Amino acid sequence: MELTNTNENYFNPTSKLKSSPIPINFLPFNKNARYCFYCKNRYTWTQSLYQKCCENCFSQYVNNVDNNNTYLDVLIETRQSILCQEHEKSKNEMFITTCNIKEWCRNCLFIIYFKQIFADHYYFSNFRDYNPMKNCTLCGKLIYQTILTKGDIVFKLCSDCYLISSGWINSLNEKPILILYLPWWDNSDQCLVCNKYLDFISDCQKWCTRCYIIYSGCRYCLTTNIIFGLSDQSQCRKCNRILVISIADIMNITTSGNKDIDALLYDTRFKIKNDHKIINEISSIDITIPSNVYTFLRSNYTPSDYYSIMQWISYSQIKNLEKLAEGGFGIIYKAICPEKNKTIAVKRLKSSQKISRVFK
């Protein structure tokens, strides 16, 4: 699988698929969500890989798409017991595979799995009923040389139809940060670095409050941008839509209002062994197995120790402030930490409104 630099004028991570003309709302961004974000109906499971889908929103999507373009990479199966008249002639076929949404029959077909969804380490284990397709359904390229009849087979993508890229964007404190452009929909609910459960900002945005890593998805292309730092926007590499990140809630708990202080706080969140190494070497791993991408990233990012993380606490949150002493550079107070109700020491710096990098 190729690695493409973001400085190129154009890059299509899923060239065999078209960007959807309407949002793909029937797939959750949280694999453990129980109810649809939009219609509030309960999600149903696909027959393999334990993926979730909203049947109501899916039905609306099928009705609203009015062309024959290919937007989804899926495997569907016939319901042998209730074949409609149109598909009666194909009753001897175990699977009917198609990417044309208008060929789907809601009366006798159901979804086995979506290839564009990945979370954690996916394996096919129910081989008697649902073997993975040997060939790519988009281009026909051979993906699996052999398929075992016993044991697990790892989930794979086509190296020609799914491409990954990376680059740099500016963070909120104007510091360049790494961004990874994934050609699939990442619906995981835990941080890929520290495994902390993610906070969900919207139906297509989530972030780690410990590592400050943001996951931003495009619902028109089912791609995911992973941003290793705080930023207020990113861009889908397929459709070029600007993905505005709902940063207001994040800013309320992470920013001091001073970019130098914020830069110091952000640097304590995680340790990057070598971000340039990630860009240079990610193309050398077998990215056809999506889990390899996450393993590679974990090996190059080390979450900071809990006690070494610095957090901004606004003055309004501090309780029971009591002056203890005053020196040449500031005043020392005794106070109560709001989160754990602990007694802490607070130092008020003189001329604190003019803080610069020399305070580091």
TrEMBL record:
SUPFAM superfamilies: Protein kinase-like (PK-like). Gene3D superfamilies: Transferase(Phosphotransferase) domain 1 (1.10.510.10). This is Protein kinase domain-containing protein. It comes from Glomus cerebriforme.
